[in-house]
Each structure stands twice: as structure tokens, then as C-alpha cells.
Amino acid sequence: MTLKGFKSFASSTSLNFEPGITCVVGPNGSGKSNVVDALSWVMGEQGAKSLRGGKMEDVIFAGTSGRAPLGRAEVSVTIDNTDGALPIDFTEVRISRILFRNGASEYQLNGDTTRLLDIQELLSDSGIGREMHVIVGQGQLDAILLANPEERRGFIEEAAGVLKHRKRKEKAIRKLDSMTANLARIQDLTVELRRQLKPLGKQAEVARKASTIQSDVRDSRLRLLADDLLQMRSTVDAEVADESALRARRDEVEAALNKARAREEEIDRTSLIENPLLVRAQENYYQLTAQREKFRGIQNLASERARFLSEDADEARASGRDPESMDLEANTLRGEERGLRGEVEQAGAKLVTLSSELKGLEANLTGEENSVSAALRAIADQREGTARQEGHINGLKSRIDATNAEIARLTKSKNEAEIRLRTFQEEFALLEVQIASVDSNEPGLDSDFESAKAALASAKSELVGLEELESQAQRERSGIDGRLRALQESLVARDGSGFVLSSATKNRGRLSSLITVAPGWEAAVAAALGPLADSVVVSDVSSAVSALTMLKRESAGQSELLVIDGDSGFTASNRTPPNGFTSLATLVTSSEVSGAISSLLSGFVAVEDLAEAERALSADPSVIAITRDGDVLSRIRARGGSSAQNSAIEISALIERTESQLQEITNNCDRIKFELVRANESLASCANIHELALAKLNESDAKISGLAEQMAVSGQNVKNAQSEVERTMASLVEANTQRASDESDLGAAITQFESHQAPADPDLTHLEDLRSKVSASRSSEVEARLILRTLEERVTALSARASALETAAQNERDLATRAVSRRESRAQAALTAQGVADASYEALIQIESSIAKAATERERLETLRAERESEILALRITSRELTSELDALTSSVHKDEIARAEQRLRIEALEQRAVEELGVDVHTLVNEYGPANDVPTFVDDEEGNFVPGDLIPYRRDQQEKRLAQAERSLTLLGKINPLALEEYSSLEERLRYLAEQLEDLKKTKRDLLEIIKEVDDKVQQIFKEAFDDTAREFELIFARLFPGGDGRLIMTNPEDLTTAGVDVEARPPGKRVKRLSLLSGGERSLVAVALLIAIFKARPSPFYVMDEVEAALDDTNLGRLLGVFEELREKSQLIIITHQRRTMEIADSLYGVTMRGDGVSEVISQRIRESESAN
Fold this sequence. Notes:
Blueprint: E1 2-4, E2 13-14, E3 21-25, H1 32-42, E4 72-80, E5 92-100, E6 105-109, E7 112-114, H2 116-124, E8 135-136, H3 140-146, H4 149-160, H5 163-238, H6 244-312, H7 323-378, H8 380-492, H9 497-502, E9 507-510, H10 511-514, E10 516-517, H11 522-529, E11 536-538, H12 541-554, E12 561-563, E13 582-583, E14 588-589, H13 594-600, E15 604-606, H14 610-619, E16 624-626, E17 632-633, E18 638-639, H15 648-754, H16 765-916, H17 922-929, E19 938-940, E20 946-948, H18 956-972, H19 980-1041, E21 1046-1051, E22 1062-1067, H20 1081-1098, E23 1103-1107, H21 1115-1128, E24 1133-1137, H22 1141-1145, E25 1149-1155, E26 1161-1167, H23 1168-1174
Parallel strand pairs: 3-24, 3-25, 8-23, 11-12, 15-16, 23-24
Antiparallel strand pairs: 1-2, 1-4, 4-5, 5-6, 6-7, 9-11, 10-14, 13-15, 16-17, 17-18, 19-20, 21-22, 25-26
């Protein structure tokens, strides 16, 4: 096991627990129990109190007065798994746990990061579980006896390996709870889906009928469209005119034009061939001219180079140092070297002589020293008593001097310790003031933080509310905008009015757009105007005729037209409404068609309802009463009821109101966006304030934490300084007492010594002379050695210098040889340059001839190019004339084709309509839906479904009637959900899937209940076996530890092995009591040990750890317990924390734990068995 930074083990400390019994010993407070805590902690202990701490961070080394605290604690334990006791494929398992001071923690298994659960599961099969019964710490023996029966059962279960089965059961129960919730949720979903399936089935049936009717509508439209398309094609074929003459002349003109263009292309091809030749001829001429200038430059350059090299060849070689003089200097140095070598030989001979003399003097000195020693030994007996007394006196003086020095040192240390104590006390007081100051500011910071937090939450809620309002406003605006577009499109596409308005026909617009109706009376005005409410206003009758003609020609439908040619055709009415009633014309205003409106609405009276209409007719039978809802009532006719279609006037009013609503909601959206921007800014400001308050609070907490740590360190320093002052004072008193005693003894010894005569010393003059001679001889020999080394170094330097001069002379000779070679090369280069100059002159003569030929060829090609350009100009004039004539002929042909092109456009429109609206290509439309094909029919069966009937020949009037009937049937079906079939099928499929899931969950529930039952049976079996074995072993162990006593284990509820607890009955010899609480402390400890050892023997574990379990036992009981330990050693490894010598004597290895002066625990080890074998 290795500890680093764990409690008092600041440095890395390793403990190698040997097989058998390992004892850990040491004084109180040295850190022995920390070894037990480390083992418990690394194997997963989570309770700080179990580790004798207040919080988990207390296990990290907290520092001492001489050593700083550490930032993490780490413990690693290595387990030998060669026997495969642990279920893992490793022969050696290393478990590590690391805890950082910030609270972070990690577990490692063989160097890989893992979970605590994995560690616990790995150890559970070996009897080392979460309860850690194999580790018995201080004070835990009473806890075992005071535990309730269920807790004692836990010890036996852990040893028996029941933990993994209980975990399996807990996992199964969690799955069962989750599955039960899923089962209830799926049942609720099934009920809800069945409730939704019934109305959706009705909608699907309607959708199925609508699909059949829509197919009938589509078939009718396709057949009518195919009939229209074939009729238009026949018309186009009949209108083809004879265009042979125009086409023949156009062909002749095209042929002549093509001939002229062909000649022009031929000339262009010739130009493509000869123009590059002209370009190349020009380039050749320019290149030859450039080459002439180039060769002239080369000739001049070569002549100048030849002249320069000829002059340079006569220059003298560069001067350098004479190699002969360097050889001479080297020979001189070699001579000096030989002279110095002679001096070296002389110095070596002198050194040998001096060494011989030194050896002789040293031999004489040794003999004289032996003589003096013999003389001193001769008079030793005489001086023995006096020497002993003198030694005693000197010893007393030395002790007194040492005591005085110690007193001075202790006095100085005491003064320094007092100074440090005052300093530390001042620091501690200052820290108390600082932490009190920071604490006083803490409530203000807390209130600021809470206020900032509340403001931030308020800003966030406000922002969320505004975002929801914006989203709602955007949805409303999108809905209103879509409704507005739909109204505008419906207004444009009503009958043929839209086509008239979009055409070039002269019109003033819709009547609905030219009038203004009082709000709420739109339906009344539309009912009074009748078809004219949707009419288009035109300026004259000719415009009306033109519009109607265009509608017929384009088959664009029908349109109501209102002709207003000034005020002609409309006569103002002088009729006045009955008293108390309002004329409808007064509710309509218009700047353009006021006369027409007054005439059209003449005789109409506006009333609120039908009852008021009756009163108006009673007042004046000639008027026509119209209600606000559009009901018309007159003396001879009435019209009203409900209408699903709005008039153009009503739609225009709706458009105006919708535009107003759209503008209002748009303004509301803009206002909300502005408020959103403001809310975001407010949120950002509140977030900044919140972060600032949080930072201040964190800073205050960090400051308080830092001050608290400093205060703790300062308090420890004060305690240490006080202890040091006290220790120094005690030492000082003891030193003064010792000095007084020594001074008294010294006076008595001096009085006794002065009564004796001191003996005479031998003559040492000759001995000192010999020593002086030996010293002088040694100095002479050292000096001779130095001279010899100096001469040898000078010889080496002269040799190196001579070698360098010889090398330099050789280099000078090589340079002279290369200079001669270089002069020869320059002479050869001069001859080459002269040859280049002569060759350049010959080349100039040839280039002049070539330039003359190139100029002639260039002139010829330029003449041919001018001729080609003139011919091309004439051809282009002819081509323009022929092109103009061809365009005129083509225009004539095209005029005849315009009518057919328009007809083809209509045909293409029909074809495009078939593809885009009905999804049928033209070929399929003609072949499958043409008039030549028979038409299928559909009839209702008894169940109300449409089934195919007989085929009938195509007749257009029948198909038109069929289409109208199908559209009416589709309208009668009402609102149709087109997705009902898919939704019904999807919902039905989902219901089947949920039913399958429900069955699977029920099956899973049965399986889980079966697993829980199996686990309970397995736990009962394992516990029963483990209990029986433990009870048997407890009786045996109890009989050994309490000879003549009686002890046994009983189950509190034998009928229910799942929850039965374990109780202990113990009767020591000579006593009748069986209650554990009435036993003495030693008996209680022994009973607890007996229970633990019974568990150990019944279900052995790889190792056991016991912390001073025998501390309360007497010598007899200790001997019995040690005998049991000897038996446990055979199968398991024992680690015992003890103070008992007898326990140490049975140990195989011994670890000693001590506390150094800096507060750090240190470990030393000893193998007892090997030591005993060695002895």
C-alpha cells in the first residue's frame, strides 16, 4: 500500500504487508490508525466520521508549522490475485483513490479510471463489501455489540457475498417500478386512442366517399378538356394557307445570300492562312534586325575581353610569406625543443634524488617517534592518577562551559520565541479584526445578491412574457395577412371580371372599389344592386361590347358590366322615403358614380330588420325595404335567407377592415419589438449587476476562507510558539541547576589535584628537528615536480608551434603552384575571346543578307492582304441587300402564321392546364379521355358506397351535367378532412403497436417478479448457510476465549429468513447473566472479537485489519486471542495495530510509525521471522 498526502503521511510512504501477521506499532498520535483509515478509504469508505473526520477533505494533509498543506490525498493498494479470488483477469490488482481539496475525486483500477460501484462489485465476492467488516477500527467493538439484530445480519451477509444478490434485487425492483409506470402510461394511451378512433373513423368514411366523388369530378373535367383540345387542333389544321410562292422566293434569296457568305468565308480562310505568314515575315525581319545588333555587341565585348586578358596575363603573381623563412623558423624551434628535453631529463634525475632523501628522513622520524612513545609509556603509570584527576577536572570545566553555552543559547532561543509569540499573537488579533470586518460586510453583499437575483428573474420573466406576446402577435398578423391576401385574390378572380380588369379594355374598375358604404350596410347595398354589385364600370357601350367580345373569344367566363357615359342613362329620382325611414342611397357615397348609384338605389329604404321592413311597406307600399342583413321585401316580391357567398362590396369592406386590423396588429408588433429591445437591454443590465454581485459575494467568501486558513495557521503558530517558550524555560531552569552542581564538583576536584606533583615530560627537541627536515624535504620534492611539469608543457608547446610553421610553409608552396596554373588559364581565355570576335564578324555579314530577303517577302504579303480586304468589302454590301429582301419575305410569311400561333398558344394553355391542374400529359389525355373513349359510371350500393357501373358513349352535355352533379355531391358532404384516412390508419397501427407493447410489459413484469423471487430464495439460502457456519464457529471460539462459558447466536425471526436479525447471547464462566450490556468492558470486547472471528472463520476473506482490538484484554485473555490469530494466519493476512508486546512477538513483520518534528508520520519496517532465523 502507498500513501501520499493522506492525513499525517505527507510524503509518499509505501507499506509492503507480508503473508501472515503484520503488526503496526508506534506511540500514541504517531499515525498508526491512519494506516487503517487509508485502507478503509481506498476501498470505498464514504463516511467522513468513519475516518475520524468532520468532512472528507480532512483526509488531505493539512500542513504543519514547518510544512505547507497539500492539495490532494492519494492511496493505492495492490492485491495479489494469483489465486483468482477477485473476478478479474489480472494476477495483480491495483486500486487507487485520489481526492482533491476542491472536492473532486476519482478511482482507478490498474491505472484506468473507474467508478466506486465497480470497485465495490469487484470486492464483494471476496467478502470485502461496503460495510467493511474486515476492518475493525478503534471503538468499533462496542458498536458491533450495540448494533441492532438487522445490522449484525449485515456483517454476516457481507462476509457471505450477499451484496451482489441484493444489488440485483434492487435493480430488478427499480426496473419493476419503472415498468409499472410505463404500463400505466401505455394503458392510458390505449384508452385515449380508442376514444379518438371512433370519430376519426367517421371522418375517414366521409373522406373515402369524397375521394370517389373527386375522382368522378376529375374524370369529367379531363374528358371535357380533351374534347376542347381536339376541336382546337382541328381548327388549326383547317386554317393552314398556301405559302409556296413566298417560300420559293425566300429560298432563292437565301441561296444567293449563302453563296455570298460562302465566298466571304473562303476569303476569310485564305486570310487565316496568309495573315500568319505576314506576321511571321514581319517577326522574322524584326528578329534578324535584333540579331544583327546582338552580334555587334558580342563582337565588341569579345574584343575588349581578349585585350583585357592579354594585359592581365603579364601581371606578377600575388606576394605571400616566404616558405623558406618559415622552414628556418621551424628548425630553430625544433632546436629549442631538443634543449628543453635535456633540461627535462635533468629535472627528472633531481626529482629522483630528492625523493630518496625524503624517504630516509621519514624513516628516521618514525624511529624517533617510537622512542618518544616508549618514554611516555614508561612514565604513564606515574601520571595515571594525576591524569585521571586532571581529566575529571577538564571534563567538569568542559561541562560547565557547555552548560554556559547552552544557557546562553536557551536564553537567546527563549527571547526569540517570545518575540515570535508576540508577533504571532499580533497577527492572530489582526486576522480576527479583518475577518470581523469582512463578516460585517457579508449581509450587505447577500442582500445585494438577492436583490440582483430577484431583478434578473423579473427581467427574464418579463422578457419571456414579451416574447410570447410577440409570437402571438406575429401569428395573428400572419393569419390576418393570409386572410387579406385570400380576400384580395377572391375579389380579383370572380367570374370574368378579373380578366376584364387585367385586359386592355377601357374600364374604371370594380363598382365596389368606386363607392363607400356606411359600415354594416354592405350586404344591404349588395342585395339592392344585385348582379351589379360585382360589376366592372366601363365608360361607354363600345367598351362594354369590346369587353364582352374578348370574354367570349378567350372563353374567360361571364362578367357584369355597368356602363356609365357621363350621367346619361341615369335619371335622378325625386321619391322621398316614408317618414322615419332612411333611403338606402344616402348610405352610399361616390365621387365618380354618384348619379348611377342614386338611380340604381332609387326606391330602396334601409331598415334594421324584417319587422321594420313591414312597417315601411305599410307606410309606403311602393318602396322596397332592405334589411341590414340583405333581406329584400317589397309589395310584390321578397328575397333573403342565408348566403354562403359574399358580394364584391362586402369583400371590399372586409378588405378595408382587414387592412385596418393588419395595420393595428403591425403597430402592436413594432411596439412589442421595441419593448423586447428594451427588455433585452434591461436583462443584460440585470445580468451584469447579478454577475457583479455574485463576483463580490464569491470574492468575500474567498477572502473569508483565506483569512480563516491564515487564522488557523496563525493560531497554530501561536500554540507552537507558546509550547516552544515553555520548553525553553524548562530547559533553562534545568541547565542552571546542572551548572551549579558542576561548579561545586569542580572546586573540590581542583583542591585535590593541587595536592599532587606533576610528572616531567620527555625532551622532544630532536623529534621536532626531524619533523622540520622532513617538511623541508617534502617542499623541495614538490617544487622539483612542478619544475618538471613546467618543462614538459613548454616542450609540448614548442613542438606544436614548429608543426604549425611547417604546415604553413607547405600551404604557401601549394598557393604558388595554383597561381601559375591560373595565369595559363587567362592566356587561353584571351585566345578564345579573340576567336569569338572573329566569328561574330562573319555572322554579321550573313545576317545582313537575310534581312534583305525578309524585307522583300514582307512587302509581297502586305500587297495580297490589301486585295483581299477590298473584295470582302464588296461582298458585304451585296449580303446586306440580300438580307433586307429576305427579312421582308420572312415578315410576310410570319404574318400568316400569327393567327395559327395564337391558336397554338390556346392549345398549349389547355395542355399546360391538363398537366399542372390535373396532372395528365397530353398524350394520355387524348388517348384515354378523348371523345372516342367510353365513359365509366358510378352508382350507390346498399351501404351508400360508390361502385363502378356500365360504360356509356361520350356526349358533351352529359359530361357537363355529370360534372355539375359531382360538384354538388361534394358540396353536400360538407367539410372534409383530407388526412382522415391516413390519420385513421396511423392511429389504428399505433393502437396495435401499443397493445403489443402492453403484452411485452406484462411479460416483463412477470419475469421481474420471478427474478425477485429467485434472488430472495438465493439470499435466504446463502444467509442460512452462512449463519449456521458462523453460529457453529461462534460457539467454538467463545468456548476457547471463555473456558466454561456459554455463547451462541440466535435469529430473531427464524420463520422469515429474508428479514430475520441476529442476536448474541453470552454467559461468561461463573456468571448467570446473558445480556451484553451487563458484561464488563473487557468481556464485551472479547465477545465482539469472538463474533468477528467466527464470521472470519466461517467465511474467510483475503485479509483482516484490526486496530487495537486487544487493548482492553488482560494477559490471559490476550493469550487466548493470540492463539486464535495464529489460526487465522493460515488462511488470511492479518494487519494489527497494537501496543501489546505479546502481539508483536507473534508477528511475521513489524512496521514502526513515528511522528517527526515537522508533524509528518514516518514508517520503518522489520521482518521478524527472517531476523529470528538469522540469529
